[in-house]
């Protein structure tokens, strides 16, 4: 049985009190807290195993290399990739998307082409495409969303013309928590010979994700949102696509050979095999060790359990938010369409003021645009306050949150 109280025992930070209040951490979409299993794995790495990878023949380097490669294997298994060659370690979702833009987009997109991006994307799945379109002359087209924040699938069918080469879609919106039917998007895109890039930043940590089932061509996600450390993230890519892509960054580790031709004054370079071809320079080895521990922890909990727990909390919160007359909740009314993210506003209050007031109760939430300004513009709201749950949050914490909101409403 999944028990969030037992889970909480693994998270030292949750014991912290601020101004006498036991903290309630509801900002998990921004970053998650870390269990001691992750902290200890990283501590052990730095205390006992630290060395660079893929470079030296000494024992420490061999051990570090083994741990680093094991992390790729662990990720591959977690998301159902065919092999670790399809798993590239990057700094996070943002870098993973930029890798696709500059390794695939730069060499494959041209004037006359279109990249279709949904209006609910995080800026990291918008800005790289806007920058690249200025260089390459292709068009970025935006797929509208419905007023409840769900994707407009009918419009998608209309917009998927033969000009579209890539569809960029988030699996779960970081603002509304809407879960997109990425399987259908991929099917429609593939029928049109377009590739699909899925932003999994808010799905991989919270629901079971299998890339074979989704049939996406790329999947990007961040370690720090799934109990792992900051500084490490993942780009999954189908092997046959990655094989044909040019490297992103150049440097050590990503080459097979760099030989100098004196007469030509040039270096002849051959690329390393996958996935190392896309991992130039010394990688975040300690981060990879932490990510392995985080995935092992999530697997022990079971991703179906994680999903159900967050669904129950979301449903409970949405039900009780109805007791707050000055609160407006955005996104679909049905919690089953969502992951554990709820955006809202309190009448006459700026979202930052709501966050500050809740902070005085020890409740940490995010406020603002959440790096998704186009979606806020579509929903015609200046900004929003947002609660987002994870494995260690409890119904009791939601009760305290609702009580605090009622008190805030009371003094308005
Ligand atoms: N969203 C939030 O509070 P990075 O920063 O690279 O790890 O992740 C970027 C990113 C990409 N896509 C989605 C859907 C995201 O939610 C995020 C990060 C955080 O919502 C910080 S802005």
Beta-strand portion reads 15-25%
Helical fraction equals: 25-40%
Overall shape: it is: globular
Poorly predicted runs are none
What small ligands are held by the chains? ligand C6P
Largest sheet: 7 strands, mixed
CATH architecture title of the largest domain: 3-Layer(aba) Sandwich
Overall pLDDT score: 97
Strand count: 17
CA-CA gap between termini: 42 Å
The number of distinct structural domains comes to: 2
CATH superfamily of the largest domain: Type I PLP-dependent aspartate aminotransferase-like (Major domain)
Radius of gyration: 22 Å
CATH topology title of the largest domain: Aspartate Aminotransferase, domain 2
The largest beta-sheet arranges its strands as 4-10-9-8-7-5-6
Q: Could you name the CATH class of the largest domain?
A: Alpha Beta
Task: Give structural notes.
The chain starts with a helix and ends with a helix. The strands form 5 sheets. A 7-stranded mixed sheet has the order 4-10-9-8-7-5-6, sandwiched between helices. The chain has a 4-stranded antiparallel sheet with strand order 13-14-17-16, with helices on one face. It has a two-stranded antiparallel sheet with strand order 1-2. The mean pLDDT is 97. Helix 4 (93-108) packs parallel to helix 5 (127-136). It contains 14 helices and 17 strands. It has helices at 4-8, 36-49, 59-79, 93-108, 127-136, 153-159, 182-191, 211-214, 239-244, 285-301, 303-321, 351-359, 373-378, 395-410; strands at residues 17-18, 21-22, 24-25, 87-90, 114-118, 139-143, 164-170, 195-199, 218-222, 233-237, 255-261, 266-271, 327-329, 341-346, 363-364, 366-368, 384-388. It folds into 2 domains: 4-26 and 302-407, Aspartate Aminotransferase, domain 1 (Alpha-Beta Complex); 39-299, Type I PLP-dependent aspartate aminotransferase-like (Major domain) (Aspartate Aminotransferase, domain 2), CATH 3.40.640.10. It is an alpha/beta fold and 412 residues long. The structure holds ligand C6P.
């Amino acid at each position: 049985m999944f028990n969030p109280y037992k889970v909480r025992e693994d998270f030292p930070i949750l014991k912290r009190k601020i101004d006498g209040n036991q903290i309630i951490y509801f900002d998990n979409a921004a970053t998650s807290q870390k269990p001691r299993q992750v902290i200890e794995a990283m501590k052990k790495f730095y205390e006992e195993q630290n060395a660079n990878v893929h470079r030296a023949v000494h024992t420490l380097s061999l051990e570090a290399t083994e741990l680093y490669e094991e992390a790729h294997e662990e990720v591959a298994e977690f998301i159902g990739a065919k092999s670790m060659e399809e798993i590239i370690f990057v700094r996070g979702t943002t870098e993973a998307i930029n890798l696709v833009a500059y390794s695939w987009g730069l060499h494959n997109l041209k004037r006359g082409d279109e990249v279709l991006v949904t209006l609910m994307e995080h800026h990291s799945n918008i800005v790289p495409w806007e920058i690249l379109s200025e260089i390459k002359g292709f068009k970025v087209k935006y797929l509208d969303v419905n007023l409840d924040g769900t994707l407009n699938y009918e419009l998608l069918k209309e917009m998927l013309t033969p000009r579209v080469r890539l569809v960029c879609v988030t699996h779960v919106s970081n603002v509304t928590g809407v879960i997109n039917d990425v399987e259908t998007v991929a099917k429609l895109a593939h029928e049109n010979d377009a590739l699909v890039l899925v932003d999994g930043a808010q799905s991989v940590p919270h629901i079971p994700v299998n890339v074979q089932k989704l049939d996406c061509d790329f999947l990007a996600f961040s370690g720090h949102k799934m109990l792992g450390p900051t500084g490490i993230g993942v780009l999954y890519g189908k092997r046959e696509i990655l094989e044909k892509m040019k490297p992103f960054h150049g440097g050590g580790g990503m080459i097979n050979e760099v030989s100098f031709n004196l007469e030509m004054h040039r270096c002849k370079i051959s690329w390393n095999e996958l996935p190392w071809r896309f991992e130039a320079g010394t990688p975040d080895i300690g981060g990879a060790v932490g990510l392995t521990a985080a995935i092992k922890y999530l697997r022990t909990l079971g991703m179906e359990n994680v999903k159900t727990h967050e669904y129950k909390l979301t449903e409970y919160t949405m039900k009780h938010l109805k007791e707050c007359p000055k609160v407006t909740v955005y996104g679909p009314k049905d919690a089953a369409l969502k992951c554990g993210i709820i955006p809202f506003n309190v009448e006459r209050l700026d979202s930052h003021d709501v966050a500050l007031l809740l902070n005085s109760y020890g409740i940490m939430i995010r406020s603002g645009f959440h790096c998704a300004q186009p979606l806020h513009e579509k929903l015609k709201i200046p900004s929003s306050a947002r609660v987002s749950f994870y494995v260690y949050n409890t119904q009791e914490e939601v009760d305290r949150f609702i009580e605090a909101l009622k008190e805030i409403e009371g003094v308005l």
